[in-house]
Amino acid sequence: MSVSFSVLDLAPVVSGGTSAQALRNTLDLARRAERLGYRRYWLAEHHAMPGIASSAPAVLVGQVAAATSTMRIGSGGVMLPNHAPMVVAEQFGTLEALYPGRIDLGLGRAPGTDQATARALRRAPGPLSADDFPEQVVELRSYFAADSTVTPAAGNEPPIWLLGSSGFSAQLAGLLGMPFAFAHHFSAANTEPALKLYRETFRPGALDEPYAMIGVSVIAAETDERARELAAPQALSFLLLRRGNPGPLPSPEEAAAYPYTPLEREMIEARLAEQVVGGPETVRKDLDALVERTGVDEVMVM
Known about the structure:
Layout (H helix, E strand, L loop, with lengths): L3 E6 L9 H18 L3 E4 L13 H11 L4 E8 L5 H14 L4 E6 L6 H8 L10 H10 L17 E5 L2 H10 L3 E3 L8 H11 L10 E5 L1 E3 L3 H19 L9 H6 L4 H12 L2 E3 L1 H15 L3 E4 L1
Parallel strand pairs: 1-2, 1-10, 2-3, 3-4, 4-5, 5-6, 6-7, 7-10, 8-9
Helix pairs in contact: 1-2, 3-5, 6-7, 8-10
């Protein structure tokens, strides 16, 4: 394959573990990913989830950048409606000033949490909405201009990506001429339509040509059977989240012992069907097919 590979990390908290252990695991994984030649390493923003420790991506980006030396480090992404654009500009302008040429700022328009937590984050009495996301993006970018008074953002703009799981951000990224990352790992049915829309609406801006990346959940092991065993905890975690009962990432043994109903087993199989799961040859074949089908420039594995 001629595409680049990168890593998306949610800093998962495993059953019986702690957030502190999860964050140390993130630093270890980032160092390993850099040694293996991955292009970039992104941290996601999620809130009030017992199984995910990546609630403060700007803090984690700084820590991971300090622990590595060549990989690009970024957010995948900052959920912009949760934050004042000026604060995000200050945070990532600081990071770009400290680690020039190594920082990415990925932006999403979803809250990354439930409505009550989103209100607590924003301290906003009115109804919550992501409808002003395009205006927020434009405002954020203005703070990085050389003549901006927002220090240290002024003159320290990292590459800004738009993230999405539908056509909204795909079209916006195209109209603004920005790189686009699509969440194939939880919206596989929308991947190809969104990428098509991005390319059709693209106008030169930050980029002269479109650049698309997809996030893919990949579980690789020595054999197909072992890979399915290792994929079961993530599938069970997703099932529990859908049922409104999120928790730490189960162990493979806990996932194997869980009393699935027939409907739950169908949901698990549907979930696994959207992932790349298997031994080396299976993973290579499935990723080759996915890249050929989507025509993406980069794959970010979770």
